Amino acid sequence: MSDSNLMEKIVSLCKRRGFLFPGSEIYGGLAGTYDYGPMGVLLKENVERIWRELFRDGRDDIYGVDAAILMNPKVWEASGHTATFADPLVVCAECKRRFRADQLDDPSVCPECSGALSEPKPFNMMFATKAGVAEDESATVYLRPETAGGIFVNYKNVMDSVHPKLPFGIAQIGKAFRNEIAPRDFIFRLRELSQMEVEYFVAPAAWEKAFEEWRETMHAYARALALPDEKLHELEVPQDDLAHYSKRTIDFEFDYPFGRKELWGLAYRTDFDLSAHMERSSASFEYLDEETKEKFVPHVIEPSLGVDRTVLAVLASAYREDELGGETRTYLTLAPKVAPVKAMVSPLLKNKPELVEKAREVRAVLRAALPGAVIAWDDNGNIGKRYRRQDEIGTPFCVTVDFDTLGEKPEFANTVTLRDRDTGAQERLSVPDVAGRIRAALA
How many Cα atoms are found within 13 Å in the side-chain-facing hemisphere of 390? Predict the structure, then answer.
């Protein structure tokens, strides 16, 4: 299967099975926007939940915030976004198409019509809007281009309210907005995206130790999502290519079907952000070390992870096709923790009330035994079609109630058939044993 063909199949599956839909599709769509469907919402929530477990809730030194999307524009002046958050824009003299110069093999020739391209000029990617009733420039505010800004402006609020000791971090999951010149590659490059970020504040001399600790946490996250080691790569960003705020950055790159691209980033931001905000505002961000009595502005380590790019990496890693039962089967080998649905319960035949009643009873037992786990119900079509549907959304287990469950064969009474997604193998187990098997898979 070619890489382009694989990408087409992933996009098709996402639409067909309710993971992702083109934004505003009934009106022709809007480039760079996608909507998460019923299965996509569950998958995205699981990606975020595992991040929270590793980056926030499983630690004693991380505090959460949920900052406003609209902020005083002085925030973006201080951070440098107003002046520097730009991509190189070129325009074709013939077809008038616009492109990012740094994404073209030849930035002087139009890839669409071979016309001459203009000289690159900076294009600021922040979305501007108006706040309030005024129409002049003083009313201009921006949709935040990153979530980090909301964390930095709340540093003092967190310090004053929960009184943390260094090192500590502030974590946030939220929306960011970037007016991309050329959004592309499905949900890889979007104009509206979600980020998972931590700003971890340390003493200046302690940044290297913290950097390595967060580096390992990011690898642990990749393992929890079942991203293949061979598809994940670290790139040490050269000094000349570093962002204006960074002294060291590692890009975690992933082998997507359309090439190796940036997935996550780990940056040492020094004291750039806090010092810039302290200089431009009336707030003091100095930290007093109670042992040494030394005052200093903390330095920052930032593990930054895109939710949408992570979802796409998970889907691309899990997509499979094989032959099962003489038919070509499409399925997703999602890790049970990540899978939208953990198990599906089904009566062998939906027109047999006794089977339906027993199957609903089994489902109720599993839902009670596995709180928080999505246990689906499916009685549409024959059992083979139900299995294929669940395979395509990555459901690890299918549970079938049949006549043996009801005691047709006394030795199998009150047992069900448990089917494994990846192998198609089936075995008979008691309902408590099924619950135990699923619980173990989710551990």
Answer: 32
268/309 same-domain check = yes
Question: Of the candidates 315, 332, 356, which is a domain's last residue?
Answer: 315
426: nearest Cα among 410, 406, 404: 404
> Which residue reads 């949709």 in tokens?
143
Task: Quick: pLDDT tens for 268-287.
Answer: 999 999 999 999 998 999 99
Main-chain phi, psi angles of 117, to 5 degrees: -100, 150
- Give the whole-angstrom CA distance, residue 112 versus residue 101: 14
Contacts for 169 with CB less than 8 Å, ≥ 6 apart: 59, 61, 62, 63, 198, 199, 200, 201
CA–CA separation, 234 vs 266, rounded Å? Answer: 10
pLDDT confidence tier of residue 6, bands split at 50, 70 and 90: very high
CA distances from 231 to 186, 216, 262, 307 (A): 19, 16, 12, 18
The separation between the first and the last C-alpha atoms of the chain, rounded to the nearest angstrom, is 34
The residue whose two tokens read 């050329």 is 182
| Residue 416 dihedral angles phi and psi, to the nearest 5° | -130, 170
CA distances from 110 to 98, 117, 184, 258 (A): 9, 6, 17, 21
Instruction: Kindly state the average pLDDT of the residues 276-304.
Output: 94
* Whether 311 and 352 share a structural domain: no
pLDDT band at 165 (very low <50, low <70, confident <90, very high): very high
Domain that holds residue 414: 341-442
User: Could you report the per-residue pLDDT of 202-213, keeping only the tens digit for each?
Assistant: 999 999 999 999
Instruction: Note whether 157 and 262 are same-domain residues.
Output: yes
When divided into structural domains, the chain yields a total of: 2
